Amino acid sequence: MEIPEDKSAGTNGWLNRTVLGAGLTSALGDFCYETTTVILPGFLAVLGIPAALLGLIEGTADAIASFTKMAAGYFADKFGHRKMLVALGYTLTPVGQLLIAIALGWQLILLGRLVSWFGKGLRGPLRDAIIVQAVSPHTRGRAFGFHRAMDTLGAIAGPLLGVALLGWAQTLPWDDDAGPFRMVFWLTLVPGLLAVLAFLTLVRDPEHSPNPAMRLFTTIKSLPARFRQYLAAVGVFGMGDFSHSLLILAATHLLTPSMGVLQAAQVAGLLYVGRNIVQVGLSYPVGVLADRIGAAPVLVAGYALGAVTALLTAFAFWHGSDSLVLLCIVFAAAGLYVAVQEALEATVTAGMVPERMLGTGYGALGTVNGAAKFISSSMVGLIWTALAPQAAFAAAALLMAAGTFVLARTR
Predict the structure, then answer these.
(1) pLDDT reading at 78 higher than 50
(2) Cα separation of 372 and 45, whole Å?
(3) Helix, strand, coil proportions of the chain in percent (round to 5)?
């Protein structure tokens, strides 16, 4: 099938070569690093690394990604050259996977996660800016919904294959229980490298004029006031929006007494796959709904569901429940609210920020999100270890509810 060219935004419809290429690239990229996400909690459990360190690893990685997004967006608006920066970002993901594969303790795992998330921060806002300029304004919701759906397809296929490979690898002779996990980490390098190739060959960066006179702090100050208010709401919500690696760890802990750690890790991985299936199935419908009734009210509803997800997780720990039905509900709710969040936070941003500042606007959004998630993941991990998991997820639910309230009051 011949892929249509995208000579200008929207002239050949929203599903053009750039949107398709970006979607395929994201699918392969997520195939790479989401496979690691789904088995990493089990790997850490085998190595004897506590929940507090997982929260610190994930939170620090999110923080690195957030500040990278701000710098990447600014330099792209100032100098151009977005495509090569995005390709570099995708290249760093398999490099980080390699470091995790050879790790013997938490230090190298942290370094590997930092390298991967630095690449994620480098590519995210620039890729989104390319997509925005490749489509017309009234189709942004479905374009981002399609992209997030493709992104999540990789997040479904990768963990499914990872869990299957983990089960098969356990039948092989290993010196320790970490061997099967390492094997899966090595195999993730293949889709990671294919993602780089797909982006370089398929995606075309629309015309973008550099602005050498741009100054970072002056540009940030000139962002629209209502966008800064919106970022405040995103930040409050984000301070409770913990990494879902902790959700996988929660399921692993709840199921371990009845299943054992290895089987519990596999089932938790499958629950995460279910979360991703919900996300991929609803990302495009969410985008279409936002194009019809407005992105902001749909995003408010998604934020509210995020608070419910955290509250249900706290409820599971309060009752010591190993109910698969309850865990399925938790992971399904997580998939729906993430579908809304990932598709529409970028869409709302595009409606508030001038096109010449899109890179900086997406960088600011990414910075607020990442800094807030550093707080949330670290907070949940530390409260979990110091007090109890139910207290950690209850605190997350409270912050997410507060963010929903702030967003609802933002014009």
Answers:
(1) yes
(2) 26
(3) 80, 0, 20
Cα–Cα distance measured from residue 196 to residue 28, given in angstroms and rounded to the nearest whole number = 9
Burial class (CB in 10 A: 0-12, 13-18, 19+), 377: buried
User: Is residue 394 within 8 Å of 314, Cβ to Cβ?
Assistant: yes
92-125 residue pLDDT tens: 988 988 898 888 888 888 898 889 888 888 887 7
What is the C-alpha to C-alpha distance for residues 139 and 135, in angstroms, rounded to an integer?
A: 7
pTM of the model: 0.66
363-376 residues labelled b (16+ CB within 10 A) or e (exposed): bbbbbbbbbbbbbb
* DSSP label at residue 240: T
Cα–Cα distance for residue pair 374/368, rounded to 1 Å: 10
Decide which of 90 and 358 is more confident.
90
Distance of CA 399 to the CA centre of its chain: 19
Question: Residue 11: pLDDT above 50?
Answer: no
Q: Is residue 153 within 8 Å of 27, Cβ to Cβ?
A: yes
Q: Quick one: three-class SS letters along 394-408?
A: HHHHHHHHHHHHHHH
The answer to whether residues 146 and 284 touch, using CB atoms and an 8 Å cutoff, is yes
The conformation of residue 139, written as its DSSP 8-state character, comes to G
Residue 323, token pair as written in the block = 């109910």
Helix (H), strand (E) at residue 8: none
Chain CA centroid to CA 411, Å: 26
Q: Distance between CA 341 and CA 353 in Å, rounded?
A: 18
Give 137's DSSP letter.
G
CA 179 remoteness from chain centre: 27
Distance CA 258, CA 324 (A): 12
Residue 259 pLDDT: 84
Phi then psi dihedrals of residue 212, to 5 deg: -60, -25
How far is residue 265 from each of residues 49, 109, 402, measured CA to CA in Å? 15, 18, 32
Express each pLDDT in 131-170 by its tens digit.
877 787 778 778 888 887 788 788 778 878 887 888 887 7
**What's the half-sphere exposure (Cβ side, CA atoms, 13 Å) at 274?**
19
| H or E segment to which residue 146 belongs | helix 140-169
For residue 234, which of 376, 78, 395 has the smallest C-alpha distance?
Answer: 376
